[in-house]
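Board notes (copied after class):
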Amino acid sequence: AIGLTEKQAKSQGLNVETVKVNFSAQNFRAVATNKTDGFIKIVTLIDGTIIGATIVGASASDLISEFTLAIKNKMKTKDMSELIYVHPSFSEAIQNALEKIQGLSMI
């Protein structure tokens, strides 16, 4: 995990949104490698600024670095979702979560 959890943000009086996407939801790399246990959870301010993320599962330690960059640079979900996510890859779960929190996903 990096940044604030939902609980920490709310305890600081921040108005936040969260999204959680399981690796098993539309992540073809996870399915192909039979590593569907895991999830990505993103915590944002209402304006979409990313303030925290938790990743559990395969490649979590590789994926979390994207959120380190996003938090440090005060990126919004829209900014981060404009990055290119290779298919098939575990990083597609990040894209799925970003699209979901913006209301752009059917997952």
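Comment from the instructor: The longest helix spans residues 60-72. The chain has a mean pLDDT of 90.
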